[in-house]
Write a sequence for this structure.
């Protein structure tokens, strides 16, 4: 298991003993992990294990009940507004449903963060947007509206918007959900190639094992709000741990029970 | 069988301990706590929204876009409704006044009704139905599709970029729409008076000139519509912002906007009228 106090300059994200509660339930329950610069780190786990919540905490949109979380050497929780916004300019985020602004064209969506954050002249913004769209292969779709795009195209536009301000880290929230095999392949290639070409750090949150493993430098497995295992994709796939094996190989029954806890079946059928 | 027996037994126990009689009081308590929390949340939201609105003043193009969406697109329904209300006022006013041979005052009656009451109130109700519901649905859907969260992650404050310009545009639009409503209504009244009943145009317009005061009537009407515009947009934006991000949640929020802002406008109108004309 990785040492949680390993806060070196090589790690862009260090989380230590994070606890996040919603009502009575602890969604994150002592989560500790580190993410090395320049890598693609894939965080996997069953639905509802707190993966997306971790991204919310990392982006400063949610506040942990306790624990420490540092991004690029600075603590994220409870950072005041202007400092948090400065920090977010170094982060890009790809949301599960792309979150494109529906009243703006593809070009204007990608230009949005540049226009909001800089005072560059329009001509330069146009060139920048075309460069970003070219990277995801959608320069030809610049005048289309989000409603005219397919799911895969929307995600690629959102990706080019996420890299518009040249962030140091990109967070992907379930980037493979609802994509056809071709679009899936395109997104997988983009995550890897953008990471390597732009020198980014990528944090991918997903429950798709094979896709996640195919691009990961490092894999974290989460269960019930904490890390259940970590290592390279090969290490995870070859793990002897029964829970990790069940998750990685997708067995219906195992340490994670097929049946939700319930009373006696026959008794309930008889109406007892 | 077993289920109904349990229900009957539960009711008996509740009755025994007087819980049945307590239930309405408990519900009232719950409602009061919920209402107070909602009001507190709305006030906190307003403070943040006003800060966003102040910053959005530096970006007039955003406000102009929203003036089109909330103001210009609401104009048609306001103009048509204003005309019909004016026509009806003309008819009703004439039938009443003619029995006292006072039809020469018809212009004043129509204008006072419109400028003091019907203009601000009815245009605010129409504004709540047309623009308020659209604002709530828009903000609610932006929340449901994570557009607001995406903006935050792009280091853009949605309060400044989305909420602020809409608040300012709503406050500017409402008095202008109410003025249009009243103006078209007076024209409607004139059509009925002159074309249908042959009232002398000179008498119609001079009665308005003599009977309608700039401060007491017109300015008070403008103040009312400013207040109504502010309240309607506040409620609409707040409901959209706090809506549950599902299709059902957004639809409930839209309904709440129309109901709450209509009640607020009607209740507020009584208070404002009492203060302005009743010498509170």
């Amino acid at each position: 298991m990785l040492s949680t106090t390993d806060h070196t300059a090589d790690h862009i994200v260090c989380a230590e003993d994070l606890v996040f509660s919603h009502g009575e339930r602890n969604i994150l329950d002592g989560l500790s992990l580190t993410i090395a610069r320049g890598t693609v780190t894939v965080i996997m786990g069953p639905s509802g294990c707190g993966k997306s919540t971790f991204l919310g905490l990392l982006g400063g949109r949610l506040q942990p009940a306790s624990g420490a979380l540092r991004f690029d050497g600075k603590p994220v929780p409870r950072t005041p507004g202007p400092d948090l916004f400065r920090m977010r300019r170094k982060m890009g985020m790809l949301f599960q449903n792309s979150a494109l602004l529906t009243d703006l064209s593809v070009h204007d969506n990608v230009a949005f963060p540049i226009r909001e954050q800089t005072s560059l002249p329009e001509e330069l913004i146009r060139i920048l947007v075309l460069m970003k769209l070219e990277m995801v292969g959608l320069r030809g779709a610049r005048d289309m509206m989000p409603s005219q795009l397919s799911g895969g195209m929307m995600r690629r536009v959102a990706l080019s918007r996420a890299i518009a301000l040249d962030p140091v880290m990109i967070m992907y929230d379930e980037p493979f959900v609802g994509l056809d095999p071709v679009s899936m392949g395109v997104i997988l290639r983009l995550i890897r190639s953008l990471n390597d070409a732009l020198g980014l750090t990528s944090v991918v949150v997903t429950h798709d094992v094979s896709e996640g493993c195919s691009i990961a430098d490092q894999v974290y497995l989460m269960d019930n709000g904490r890390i259940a295992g970590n290592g390279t994709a090969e290490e995870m796939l070859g793990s002897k741990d029964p829970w990790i094996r069940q998750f990685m190989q997708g067995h219906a029954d195992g340490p994670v029970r097929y049946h939700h806890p319930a009373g006696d079946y026959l008794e309930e059928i008889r109406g007892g | 069988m077993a289920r109904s027996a349990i229900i009957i037994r539960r009711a008996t126990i509740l009755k025994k301990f007087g819980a049945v009689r307590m239930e309405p009081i408990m519900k009232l308590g719950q409602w009061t706590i919920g209402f107070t929390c909602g009001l507190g949340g709305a006030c906190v939201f307003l403070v943040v929204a006003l800060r966003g609105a102040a910053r959005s003043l530096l970006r007039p193009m955003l406000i102009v876009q929203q003036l089109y969406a909330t103001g210009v697109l609401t104009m048609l329904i306001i103009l048509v409704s204003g005309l019909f209300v004016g026509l009806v006022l003309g008819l009703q006013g004439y039938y009443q006044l003619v029995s006292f041979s006072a039809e020469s005052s018809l212009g004043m009656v129509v204008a006072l009704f419109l400028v003091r009451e019907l203009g601000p109130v009815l245009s605010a109700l129409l504004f709540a139905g047309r623009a308020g519901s659209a604002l709530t649905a828009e903000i609610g859907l932006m929340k449901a599709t994570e557009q607001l969260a995406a903006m935050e992650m792009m280091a853009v404050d949605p309060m400044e970029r989305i909420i602020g310009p809409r608040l300012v545009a709503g406050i500017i639009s409402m008095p202008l729409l109410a003025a249009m409503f009243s103006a078209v209504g007076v024209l409607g009244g004139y059509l009925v008076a002159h074309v249908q009943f042959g009232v002398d145009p000179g008498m119609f317009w001079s009665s308005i000139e003599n009977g309608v005061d700039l401060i007491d009537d017109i300015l008070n009407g403008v103040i009312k519509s400013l207040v109504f515009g502010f309240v309607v947009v506040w409620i609409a934006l707040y409901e959209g912002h706090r809506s549950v991000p599902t299709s059902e949640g957004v639809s409930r929020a839209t309904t709440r906007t129309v109901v709450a802002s209509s009640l607020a406008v009607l209740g507020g109108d009584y208070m404002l009228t009492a203060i302005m004309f009743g010498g509170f």
Q: What stands out?
A: The interface with chain B takes residues 59, 61, 81, 85-86, 88-89, 91-93, 95-97, 99-102, 112-113, 116-117, 158, 161, 165, 271 of chain A (CB under 8 Å). Chain A has ten helices and ten strands.
